[in-house]
């Protein structure tokens, strides 16, 4: 069942996958992986499906017999690979890095592989500091409670300093953050021995296996006013704010305030007026989270790293990005001192980076000839 439908992102692809898994759903889902980071628009869909099948059959990629490839799907850049053997699935997941390489693609593309789930498309690893709960909770019991509440997460052994590593989907990590936020708020305003100051907050340091790397996040919450909290990837927040402000933050009758800490941004939503319906806050939160989930699967980030570059070379890269970005109206360019991030669809970020590299290379070749 290789899905070959050039130019389409069709709902039936996902429905077919669910129907296919249904007879032995648990067993079949353990033989299925979700592949993201597939370049969009570089080759025809049927060609890409063949390239994916070849990649996951190769021994060097720890692959084996592939039963089916479902591509394209309803999400650009995502495919489902169903293996004959569960052992092959496990081997593929254990490989540190997958690079999709084929002469028809022009270059290699890093892929992110995760075990199939209806709701899981990204893998997130977090380090939690639970030490601030030490006076109120027995930390071992707190961890057991979290395991039961959010079974989709995997927890490492609790360390003596109160830190613990957690891994799971981005939505599951967000649920964990909301859970800890409520517990932190319940401790607000108390003093010693099970008491704490209002500014003490659980700290979570998050690293994503995929588009965005090394985000950090701390919780802040004002319990004296009604508000909703939305935790977003900072890159998605910037993209949403830059291109989709009317569809997201400005769509509802609420006031929003974003607090960025590393590559995680916490957005606080309050009613614009005291008399506003509290349900508007809930609708705003749900709307923003839905849009974030769509962008999380759709967007890709490329990076120009300045490691080893001279100051003139760095400046030229910045100038090239500025001169080219008007031709890519849906690509977000974020310059930093050490690198430049380029965020957009797979095809557009690829074309953008190619143009920038070509411009910079041409500039220095001309200088060399002189």
TrEMBL record:
It holds the Pfam family NID. SUPFAM superfamilies: RNA-binding domain, RBD (SSF54928). Residues 31-118 form the RRM domain. Keywords: RNA-binding. GO terms for molecular function: RNA binding. InterPro entries: Nmi/IFP35_dom, Nucleotide-bd_a/b_plait_sf, RBD_domain_sf, RRM_dom. Gene3D superfamilies: 3.30.70.330. The keyword Flavoprotein does not apply. This is RNA-binding protein 43. It comes from Chelonia mydas.
